[in-house]
Amino acid sequence: MPRLALDNVGLSEQVRQRLADEADVPGWMLAGNAAAVPSDRSRRVWELVEHELNDPHVALRVGLTHDPRCLGLHAYLFMTAPTLGEGFATTGAYLNTLTTNFTFALAEETEEEVTFDTVSLGGEGRGRDLTIQVGLAGMPERARRATGRAVYPVRVRLQQKAPRRQADFVEAFGTGQVDFGAPTDQLTFRTADLALPLVTADPMLADMLLRYAQTLPTAPPPPTSWSDQLHHQLLKMLGDGPITLDHAARRMATSRRSLQRRLTEEGTTWRRELDRARCARMEDPNLQLLMSRIEIARQVGYSDARALRRAQRRWAAGERQN
Fold first, then answer.
1. Are 239 and 300 a contacting pair, CB within 8 Å?
2. E strand map for the chain
3. What is the pTM of this model?
4. How far apart are CA 37 and CA 88, in angstroms?
5. 274 pLDDT exceeds 60?
6. CA-CA distance, 288 to 5, in Å (whole number)?
7. Residue 113 near residue 189, CB atoms below 8 Å
8. How far apart, in whole angstroms, are the C-alpha atoms of residue 191 and residue 151?
9. To 5 degrees, how large is the angle CA 175–CA 180–CA 182?
10. Helix count and strand count (H, E) for the chain
11. Residues 6+ positions from 122 with CB-CB distance below 8 Å
């Protein structure tokens, strides 16, 4: 999903890489289609892209213009379905092939209209709003491409606050009925439109893809803990000057107090996590190739070798107590 943002907005390779680094999305995650990027980093990418371009509607634009085939198996499950309605049903049933951060399901059905709910399973703030925008804007556009017909939602409801310019949302979704501050994020279509056949339908390929999708795990993986996220950041910060709680919190897009509270909830502390990162850094065999003990101390965040020796004695005492 971060590639959807980084590859479809006209960024230079240098800026693309910088934003990926700022969002803590390593290059190997962007190199292929097999890596699953933690949802908080994906949301962060969208926030950074919006800020870089100074474009509050970048997610709507990407939703309307990206090639849906870049979404891999999930896109082809939709495209090979016989009708638009069955394509949407498959989209919801196998959303896990694309993301474990959302659900998409039928909410209400009448003779005239069908409403689908999109529910975010985590996250908040601007990053969440942008990921919802790109997902919902993309669905009617995919419907138009797959049916060859002018399919537009009857109504759109969004949880986000109303923007200053609502005309961009009206234009993107093709309906004047766009409501903000709603309890859930919804798309409502005409029932008759959902019966439209897809010009991309392929029963034989659809059957093979469905059988494959059924073998994939359906339950979302456990969320990355805050202490694990902090550990990852600290390993990157070691050897790059003084390390402070405030600096680490900024890199994790949170506040000092929030980070301390999260760590307490997980039964750990800032000091304990900093020591854990330093211990892990000391176990790096490449570190031992450095010429002096002083340089090794600096690489793990100490001013001199004596401070490192004192820390090592403290770590050893802690291990004996455990």
1. yes
2. 102-109, 113-120, 155-158, 178-180, 185-190
3. 0.64
4. 24
5. yes
6. 40
7. yes
8. 11
9. 115
10. 17, 5
11. 39, 40, 101, 223
Element (H, E) at 28: helix 27-31
H or E, element range at 176: none
Instruction: Tell me the Ramachandran region of residue 34: left when phi exceeds 0, alpha when psi lies from -120 to 50, beta otherwise.
Output: alpha
**Residue entry with tokens 């803590």:** 24
Reply yes or no on whether the pLDDT at 66 is more than 90.
Answer: no
Give the count of beta carbons closer than 10 Å to the beta carbon of residue 281.
17
* Nearest CA among 161, 174, 165, 167 for reference residue 63: 174
Please report where in the chains the tokens 């230079």 appear, as a residue: 12
pLDDT digits (tens, 9 = 90+) for 246-258: 888 877 767 788 8
Residues 151/182, Cβ–Cβ less than 8 Å: no
Q: How far is CA 163 from CA 30, 98, 121, 166, 169, in A?
A: 31, 28, 23, 6, 9
Q: Left (φ > 0), alpha (ψ -120 to 50) or beta: where does 280 sit?
A: alpha
Angle CA(39)–CA(175)–CA(189) in degrees, nearest 5? 70
pLDDT tens digit string along 2-48?
777 788 888 888 888 888 888 877 776 676 665 667 777 888 888 99
- Give the three-class secondary structure for 185: strand
- Order across the sheet with 178-180: list the strands: 102-109, 113-120, 185-190, 155-158, 178-180
Which pLDDT does position 65 carry in this prediction? 87
Q: How many residues does the chain have?
A: 322
Q: Residue 24 and residue 276: Cα distance in Å, rounded?
A: 20
